[in-house]
Amino acid sequence: MGDIMKLLWKALPTLVRSIFYQANWNIENMQGTGFSWLLKDLSKRFNIGVGDIKGNERADYFNTNPYFVTFMLGMFLKEAESGKAVDQYKSTYASVFGALGDTFFWHSLRPLTFFLSLFIALYEPMFAMFFYLIFFNIFNIGFKFLGFYLGYNYGTNVIELFRTVSFANWSNVADIASIFFMGGTLAITIKYISNSEAINSISIFKTAIFFIAGFATSKYVSAPFTLIIGVMIVTVVMLLQNI
Amino acid sequence: MERIIFRVDDRFIHGQVIEGWINHFSIKNIILVNDCIATDLNKAFIYKSTMPRNAKLEVISVDSFLQLDILNEYKKGYLLIIVGSIHDLKLISSNIPKENSYINIGCLATGTRDISVTDNCFINKDELDCLINISEKNSKNIYAHKLPWEKPINLKDIHDTQIKTIKMKG
After folding, report:
1. Among A92, A103, A168, whose Cβ lies nearest the Cβ of B19?
2. Rounded Cα distance, A165 and A162, in Å
3. How far is A189 from chain B (nearest CA, A)?
4. Domain boundaries, given as residue ranges, for chain A
5. Which stretches of chain B sit within 8 Å of chain A by CB?
6. Rounded to 5 degrees, what are φ and ψ at A65?
7. Which positions in chain B touch A96 (Cβ < 8 Å)?
8. Are A101 and B15 in contact (CB < 8 Å)?
């Protein structure tokens, strides 16, 4: 445990930087400049010569899921320390982490967070707002820190770990949970409507439209904006019940 | 969408391919055609690890693909065939079925390419000519779009625009 903390503490500034590494995203090399910036910083902190980490000298084309970039940093560090050429796996792992990350974070976790927050918002709207940020960022920050350690620990064999934990299926579990909370929220809302007015096709249709809009929004817009829209939708739904 | 989808993508398998194509069409059979990856078991294993449940990825060389009888071996459901470059597409073009097939250009990084098709698809003049050649030989249009629900860009339109520009400059 001490070694993990020591490693993460030493890499902390680079890991914090990884939050901003997409700031220079461009169509020329996508995240290449940002990744090169992270590698340079990492090589400085771990006293590895810049030349020891291939791909560091120039900002090559690079694009992956931003939540998985620290896995690659850890992997690069491990392989650079053991003198192996990791750069031949750079594009492979970038694509693969892009696939795994997009499926889990964008397709599944974001809607799940939205529905969980929506469910909570029915009772505690203010807490739901904070819950959204906390829940999503547990995964965000967790993957950033733990990812660096796992990348360093497993090196280019890190994909074995993803197979062991069946990571490709996590999104299915998240999807099932999303549907469960969507159903739960819908049921509670309809119950709420029935207490304030007679259930009719218009009220159910009205509620369904809001939920579809919320679901679609959570899939296509960025996380903080989703939070605002989500809370607004719930507020509007609740206000409409009182009209 | 036609049943057999050919996609040119220099990142091979990534988020857009998994979410946009494989999950969207519930594609169960995916073939990655690339000589380098077919001989590197580690890389092939890494790509296979990303596959969703029920989807099977085969990594084969260009020669192996040319010997494949696609229509008979994959009779049902969608089939996605991924190549990493327009050059590879040209190599396998003789095995593109005339019917039930669709050719899609996905991500191609800039590098020395100077024709921007989409925000992450760039080609050069030779590649464009090569695509038009494949298109004419197979009597089918080639479309560039990242995801199936995006508006497809017909490469022939890009080619015609290029010719017009050259004529105007001339």
Report:
1. A103
2. 5
3. 31
4. 2-93, 108-242
5. 11-19, 23, 42-43, 45-47, 49-53, 109-111, 116, 119-120
6. -75, 130
7. 13-14, 46-47, 49-50
8. yes
- Rounded average pLDDT per 10-residue block, chain B, 170 residues: 91 91 92 94 90 91 92 89 94 90 90 83 90 90 90 89 78
**Burial bucket for residue B155 (CB in 10 Å: 0-12, 13-18, 19+):** buried
Q: Which are the contacts of B135, defined by CB distance < 8 A and separation ≥ 6?
A: B103, B141, B142, B155, B156
* Cβ distance of B14 and A103 shorter than 8 Å: no
The ipTM is 0.84
Q: How far is A156 from chain B (nearest CA, A)?
A: 9
Which of B11, B13, B120 minimises the CB distance to A27? B120
| Closest residue to A168, CB basis, from B12, B51, B109 | B51
To the nearest 10 degrees (0 to 180), the angle between helices A223-242 and A125-154 is: 160
- Selected from 3.50.50.60, 3.40.35.10, 1.10.10.10, 3.40.190.10, the CATH number assigned to the domain covering B4-169 reads 3.40.35.10
**3-state class of A26 per DSSP?**
strand
Ranges of each domain in chain B: 4-169
Phi (first) and psi of residue B118, to 5 degrees:
-130, -175
Q: What is the pLDDT of residues A136-165, one digit of tens each?
A: 999 999 999 999 999 999 988 888 898 888
Q: Which residues of B touch A99 (CB under 8 A)?
A: 13-15, 17-18, 50
Cβ atoms A192, A241 nearer than 8 A: yes
How many other CB atoms sit within 10 Å of the CB of residue A232? 12
Length of chain B: 170
Q: Which of B21, B43, B49 to mutate to test the interface with A (most CBs of A within 10 A)?
A: B49
Nearest-CA distance A97 → chain B (Å): 8
Query: Whats the size of chain A, residue-wise?
Result: 243
What pLDDT, in 10s, does the model give residues A35-52? 988 988 998 898 876 555
